[in-house]
Amino acid sequence: MDLGLQGKWALVCGASKGLGLGCAQALAAQGVNLVIVARGAQALAQAELRLVAEQMHRQSQAFGYDLEGIPMVISVAADITTPEGREAALSVAGGPGRDFDIVVTNAGGPPTGDFRDWDRDTWLKAVEANMLTPIELMKATVDGMAERGFGRIINITSSAVKAPIDLLGLSNGARSGLTGFVAGLARNPQLAARGVTLNNLLPGAFDTDRLHATLQGAATKTGQSLDTVTQQRRHAIPARRFGTAAEFGHTCAFLCSVHAGYITGQNILIDGGAYPGVN
Questions:
Q1: What is the DSSP letter of 128?
Q2: Is the separation of the CB atoms in 80 and 156 below 8 Å?
Q3: 3-state secondary structure labels for all residues of 170-191
Q4: Which pTM value belongs to this model?
Q5: Gap between the terminal Cα atoms of the chain
Q6: Could you give the CA distance from residue 229 to residue 1 in angstroms, rounded to a whole number?
Q7: Are 5 and 253 in contact (CB under 8 A)?
Q8: Using CA atoms, how far apart are residues 175 and 131, in angstroms rounded to an integer?
Q9: What pairing do the DSSP bridges indicate for beta strands 33-38 and 267-270?
Q10: What is the per-residue pLDDT across 201-226, written as a single tens digit (0 to 9) for each?
Q11: Residues 6+ apart with CB under 8 A from 11
C-alpha cells in the first residue's frame, strides 16, 4: 500500500534502537526524509548507516543502480528531554527546520521501583521526559502542520497507561498525564479540521532493551531467575510472544499515512492481546 508519504519530513525521537528505530525504518521505506535523535552518538550513527543502507538496497532492487530518490537521513545526537536538545533537533542544518510533517515522540522510560524510594526530583525527571517533552515538541510543530494542511503526531507511550504496572509507577503517572493532554488537543478543530492528527501508540511487551530491564527488575524484586520471569511474561500474552520493532513501526507508518486522516485522539494498544478489557 502506498501511504502517500513520499518526500515528507519526520522527526523521530529515540531512534537509535528499539521501537524508535522500527518507526524510522518503516517511514524511510515509504520515502520519508528523517531527522533521527538519540542521546548515544555511536548507536545513533550506526542507526543512520543502517537506515541509509536499507534504502539504498531497496532502491537498487526496484530500480537497478538508479539510486535517486533515496530519503535523507540526518542524525542529531542530543537529549530531546532538554531545551537544548529540542532546539538542536528542530533547527538541524539540512533539514526542514521546524516544518516537520511527522513527529514521533519517544523518550526512555523512567526507572522501575517502589514509589517510596522516589523523591521529588525523580518525579520531575519522569514528567519532563515522558509528558512535558512531547508537549514541547507538539507546541513547536503543530501550527506549521495546520498551515500546510497535513500533520501527524505519534506519541510512543505504554500499555501501562491502560493497565498500570506496579513497578512502573513513574511511567504510569507521567504518561497518563500526556494521554489526557493529547485527548484534548487532538479534538481542537484548529488542528483536527486542518489535517493534523495526534495519536498515541501503546506498546505492550516488545523485544527491546526496555523490556529486558523491566524483566530484570521483576526478577530482582521477586527473587526468581530472569528466565523464569521472562517465560511467565511471555506466557501471559495470548500471542505467546513478544512484539517486534518492525511490526510496531509499520503501525506507526500507517497512522502517519494519508489513509489515517480520520483517526485522531486515539490510544492504539499493541500488546498481542494481553490487555483483558474492552476499551
A1: I
A2: no
A3: HHHHHHHHHHHHHHHHCCCHHH
A4: 0.92
A5: 29
A6: 39
A7: yes
A8: 6
A9: unpaired
A10: 999 999 998 788 878 888 888 899 99
A11: 34, 35, 37, 89, 90, 100, 102, 103, 104, 137, 141
